[in-house]
Amino acid sequence: MTTIFITGIDTDVGKSVACGALANSLLQSGHHVFTQKWVETGCDMVSQDLETHAEIAQTQFNTSAQDLHSPYRFEYPASPHLSAELANSEIDTDYLVAQTKELETQCQHLLIEGAGGLCVPLNKSTLLIDLIKQLSLSIILVTSSKLGSINHTILSLKTCQQYNIDVKALIYNHFPRKDDIIFNDSRETLQAYLRTNNQSTLWLELEQNSKQIALSNRQIEQLLC
User: Distance between CA 172 and CA 161 in Å, rounded?
Assistant: First the structure.
């Protein structure tokens, strides 16, 4: 059983697409994979992110199991703690853990998508990264070439180092590719940073409109070990 947390350097960096594409790649390689989204904001009672995972991974979206795969869903598009508060609710991290543990019994590998970046508050006492650390999860970090991504990526990597959290891979999302000069420089800068500071972290790329992330057998073994 392997559980990996898919997080991003920020919101709107392509976590859902990356999660679905990664699930698709693993499924095509013969692995039994489920996805989960702990907290989704800015949606109605149906998880849009789970729908995205299923569409990209070419699997069936089972709404009857939605509470297990998406324990908390809130209408207001804000940080998890605020969206919950506006809905007269509070995120119970013990409940998140219980739902995750139950889902782990039903699959071979589990990919959990985060909300925003690593340090968003789940409630008044717990940051997202606190729960990742509590569960001893490895992460995959999603970044892009948008302005500011170098800073956000390095800060995220350094934060994981401080928390002693293993970063399995850094996914470089090609969308939105607005400026080729920035795109190429960001790629080279981040690759150089990994070579110097995170040598065990895989470099992966998610091309625009792609439904899979190219993975060699060796890379799959590294991710799932």
Answer: 19
Per the structure, the complete domain to which residue 186 belongs is given by: 2-224
pLDDT digits (tens, 9 = 90+) for 2-50: 999 999 999 989 999 999 999 999 999 999 999 999 999 999 888 999 9
Query: What is 52-74 written as a DSSP string?
Result: HHHHHHT----GGGHHHH--EEE
Given 37, 124, 133, 211, the catalytic residue: 37
Whole-structure pTM over 0.85, yes or no? yes
**Count of domains observed in the chain:** 1
pLDDT in tens, 100-157: 999 999 999 999 999 999 999 999 999 999 999 999 999 999 999 999 999 999 999 9
CATH for 130: 3.40.50.300
- Using the 8-state DSSP alphabet, how is residue 121 labeled? B
Active site (annotated) includes residue 37: yes
